[in-house]
């Protein structure tokens, strides 16, 4: 499973140089030559360990499960991440080359103080060139942290038009409390909760952003997150219709979802306290009416 929590904080160029040169400044030696060589060895170790640590902390993005791969590609772009990691690799090789050359020059009899000063200058210039990539990798950690870690427990994905009451339902029945508001597009990312059943069993429930009835290529990034859950994570879809709103586009969206995703779709009405339509199961997150029946239906379909 993919966990962004495991990605380390990434230093800026300035911080990284402070770390390497700061560590080297504490290193001594009996002669100027020995001191310079010791300092170069220290800078070499600090930088190499640091770059390797950052590069190794990233998974092989191409081999992640489809859901994570496509989600990461959607929110940041896997090519962008690879570019940043390649830049670190480059800086790693360049700085080691500079250090090796300086060591050879000192051993060949050049003035150790001058060689060291010039090596420091060149190392700084390399690291400063990747400052933007270092900052990107640090920001990346925060972006990726918003992608929830999913389990492989039986999963119901809640979908429907904006503002129909998806988050209200998920908040009512599960451990997660997504934001609820009286305007559409409140939910902007996916929220994962768990419905606790008897004997420690659980159902994973995912609240998704509202979907409009429009073709996939016209969907924005927020809607595409919902689509990825439907496509890769759902064992069953709970499609919520709010009959107090225009039904036609909601029915069209439902048809599209049934056509495109190969899992059972449970269709229900929300806001039962506001209307009398009962040709489908109806529930209210306000009064609690019908909630148990919807849960029962989800359990039947998921066979838990
Ligand atoms: N009367 C009544 N209002 C409800 C019920 N469920 C939700 N609402 C209201 O409907 C509005 C939208 O609720 P949300 O749960 O945020 O809807 P959503 O489908 O998650 O909306 P998006 O995230 O924007 O797609 C809020 O003002 C809720 O208080 C219900 O059962 N009865
Ligand atoms: Mg919502």
Automatic annotation (TrEMBL):
InterPro entries: G_OBG, GTP-bd, NOG1_N, P-loop_NTPase, Small_GTP-bd
Residue span(s) of domain OBG-type G: 154-217
GO terms of molecular function: GTP binding
Record protein name field: Small GTP-binding protein
Record CDD domains: NOG
Keywords, sorted A to Z: Nucleotide-binding
Upper taxonomic lineage: Archaea, Methanobacteriati, Methanobacteriota, Archaeoglobi, Archaeoglobales
Organism from which the protein derives: Archaeoglobus profundus (strain DSM 5631 / JCM 9629 / NBRC 100127 / Av18)
Top-rank taxon, per record: Archaea
UniProt key word Calcium: no
Matches recorded under Pfam families: MMR_HSR1 (PF01926), NOG1_N (PF17835)
